[in-house]
């Protein structure tokens, strides 16, 4: 009776598994070896480093999820406080604006046909 297939996985480091970056960063190879006991299959995935020059053999495309945080710009104080905004309207009474009514024309009855 034949033995069941077995799988062994060896992992180390960081590997991208999804997204467009897999097409640029992961090198993938499969090899099948015919032995007396049966077929032995080997799958290898190697993640290449970022190489902007392209001379070292790595990927020339930057990863989209790598974020560079820059220092914030210095804020300058306003010389005059803002005229509108939440802070200016807090605890103040609303200003009454007079409403002008437009003249309404008298409705004429529709002719009966």
UniProtKB/TrEMBL annotation:
Start and end residues of each Small ribosomal subunit protein uS3 C-terminal domain: 2-46
Claim: Transferase is one of the keywords in the record: no
GO cellular component: cytosolic small ribosomal subunit; nucleus
GO biological process terms held by the UniProt record: translation
Record's keyword terms, sorted: Ribonucleoprotein, Ribosomal protein
GO MF annotation, one: structural constituent of ribosome
Pfam families: Ribosomal_S3_C
Domain of life: Eukaryota
Kinase recorded as keyword: no
InterPro entries attached to this UniProt entry: Ribosomal_S3_C_sf (IPR036419), Ribosomal_uS3 (IPR057258), Ribosomal_uS3_C (IPR001351), Ribosomal_uS3_CS (IPR018280)
Similarity section: Belongs to the universal ribosomal protein uS3 family.
Protein name stated in the entry: 40S ribosomal protein S3
